[in-house]
Amino acid sequence: MNPLINIGVCVLLLVLFYKYIITPIVVSPLSKIPNAHFTSPILPLWMSWKRRAGTENRTIFSLHQRLGPVVRLGPDEISVNSPGGLRTIYLGGFEKDKWYRKAFLNYGTPNLVSMLEHKPHSVQKRMISNVYSKSYLQNSRDLQLVSSTLLFDRFLPILHSAARSNADLNVFDLTQALGMDFTSAYLFGLNNGTNFLCNVEYRNQWFDLYSIFKKQLPEERASGEIEKWCLSMCEAAEALDSFEKPVDSTSTNPVVYGRLSQCLDGGTASSQPKQVTIASEMLDHLIAGHETSGITLTYLMHEMSRRPSLQSKLHEELLTLSPPLIHPMDSSAGLSIATDVSNRLVAPRSIDALPLLDAVLQETLRLYAAAPAPQPRITPFLPTPTTIEGYRNIPGGVRVSSSAYALHRNAEAFPEPEKWIPERWLEANKEKTEQMRKWFFAFGSGGRMCLGSNFAIQEMKLATAAIYTNYTTTIVDDEGIEQEDSYIAGPIGKRLILRFAHVSK
């Protein structure tokens, strides 16, 4: 072989060795960060294997316990587990990783979750953020009627029937159904939303379809049954004469659909047709709204069912509400949804102000975060490179993330972090409460945090209040209650069987 060729091959090999071995291990600014595995600086395979094996969340938590607040997971990927890191990444305007588009695109059209860039996200978020604000939700006559109808006409009668007949209930399915009915009614109006609580056969069919849907890539699920189903509800809402009719005894406005539709009529920078832009957004809300609230309520009831004394304390607190959420209602009192919604359902502010109820929910969101996995972002390309937790000169294009699973298990912020202790939220002083809030990541953080967090909290507090005002719960079968290690993490067994009994008067 020609000596010049030999020299050229050697030089090329040396250049490649320097670029792909020496640089990431020694020269790169990331080289100062502790490695998850000895191969992490040069290959992403070790972490990819952990993800495929379904152990990503627990692996990352273990790494942070051993190596500190910043860990290098791959050549261009780091995990951060600290309040300071949260501020840098999620309040600092880092854009989303392309993984979101692969996972959450509907109808081939971005929504608030799958939008990567900040500008289109902020434009669309402003269109509907008001109807998800805490003050709007607490004063919404539409949501008050939705809540009253779903609780007193659908949910509580199911529990009442089960308690009278000593029947057992799979509350994981039931609470997901409740979440779907709440979400769809607020999006599309009560008459156009789902009735998963009562239509068990259709609900089970839909859950079967959804179990396939959520594992598919956007191109695989395009124009499938789930997308057609959402589009049909969008078309029903669009056919209404007005999006802002006065609330009556049988119907409500399509609050979210109507607001987004009206805003898009005013013009948008999106190149997508209005119909698919709305449908993509609505489907994302439906998916997130039913599953995460169902998971949280399932684990809340599981923990409460192990603590009869805590059920009694919560029941006593709930009886301070006026009017209390008692079912069946006393017909002699003349309470009717047709006359005055407020007479049938206590004001949301009153429920929100109950300290034990709040503590029970917060602790469930902490220990059993429905979305416990990393929320990846990409470091920006800036004249001054990024600094995270003292690690300087982090270049643009690096995948960075934090996870609720690891953050919520910080022993300094949450002593005995693997135990469900709602009292920690009641007994903490102001300083301790502030510390816990800094580590709390159940709904994300910053401008891209969960838009529906206030809606979810109001719905879950109301459901919990309705249950423990009227019933006690005991565990019949909790096999498979262990939480999945996944992005959306429900019980491994997809079930929790409880028995409901009427509270002794």
The gist of it:
This protein is an alpha+beta fold and 505 residues long.
Key descriptive features of the protein:
alpha+beta; 22 helices; 505 residues; three-stranded antiparallel beta sheet; 10 strands; five-stranded mixed beta sheet
Can you give a write-up of this model?
It is a single chain. It is built from 22 helices and ten strands. It has helices at residues 3-27, 45-52, 56-67, 83-90, 99-104, 118-128, 134-139, 141-165, 171-188, 200-213, 218-221, 225-238, 255-265, 274-305, 308-318, 341-344, 348-352, 355-367, 404-407, 423-427, 430-439, 453-470, and strands at residues 70-74, 77-80, 95-96, 168-170, 377-378, 386-388, 391-394, 399-401, 471-477, 497-502. The strands form three sheets. Strands 1-2-8-5-3 form a five-stranded mixed β-sheet, sandwiched between helices. Strand 6 and strand 7 form a beta hairpin. Helix 8 runs parallel beside helix 22 (453-470). The radius of gyration is 25 Å and the shape is globular.
User: How large is the share of residues in beta strands?
Assistant: 5-15%
What's the total helix number? 22
What's the average pLDDT?
91
The overall strand count is 10
Shape: globular
Which spans have pLDDT < 50 for at least 5 consecutive residues?
A: 332-339
Q: Main beta sheet: strand number and arrangement?
A: 5 strands, mixed
Distance between the termini: 96 Å
Helix residue percentage: 40-55%
Radius of gyration: 25 Å
Backbone structural class: alpha+beta
Strands ordered across the widest β-sheet: 1-2-8-5-3
